[in-house]
Amino acid sequence: MSAREPGVPLLVDSGSRGHVHIDCYVRSAIPTGVSEQITTLVERLRTLRECGCVDEVDVSRWPPRHSVAAETEPTCDELVAEFERWADRHGYSLEPGFRRRTVPPSPLGVDAEARERVRVPLVALALYEEDGDAEVLRGVVPCTELSYTDDECTYTVDEWLATVETRALDEPVRSSQIDRKPLLEGQ
Question: What distance in Å separates the CA atoms of residue 43 and residue 97, rounded to the nearest whole number?
Fold first, then answer.
């Protein structure tokens, strides 16, 4: 974990920002021992909303990978593609929180070709800010800041929250350790 302040936008200075919206995505299959930590994380997000640091917090399960008929919400694959575009434009990588892997063809002949699949983290945040009439993606956590000096730094949801809480509430906050390495890597 990084001792530095996250390079991902904090979006907590209400005087210099527009409407800030955080989407918190949680995996549907959560180990029993982690559910309490996720509940604590969601409470921390709601506290940020209540103190005026963010305007809106939505917590939901990751959507299905493929669209369902008449579904207007983005799919998991579409969200990950949007997050990857943000990361590419701003010098970040979504790994190791988001992992790509190749799924081999089915031995039963159902899937004749290998396909790529993204494993999403247990918890991820998408930070949006209103820009005119549209919401613009300003950050995704977890992410890794890329560097030309091979000095990459990964920012976790817990680190991001602790930094925002410390800055916004003017007091150090004890992190919940929601994103310890095994959870971040989806283990």
Answer: 22
Alpha-carbon gap, residue 40 to 42, rounded angstroms? 5
What sections of the chain are H helices per DSSP? 32-50, 76-90, 157-169, 181-184
Q: Is the pTM for the entire model greater than 0.85?
A: no
Strands across the sheet containing 143-145:
92-93, 143-145, 153-155
pLDDT one-digit tens code per residue, 52-76: 888 999 999 999 887 766 667 899 9
Burial of residue 71, with CB atoms counted within 10 A of its CB: 0-12 exposed, 13-18 middle, 19 or more buried: exposed
**Whole-angstrom distance, CA of residue 74 vs CA of residue 66:** 9
Distance CA 127, CA 99 (A): 20
The secondary element (H helix, E strand) that includes residue 92 is: strand 92-93
Q: What is the mean pLDDT of the chain?
A: 80
SS3 label, residue 35: helix
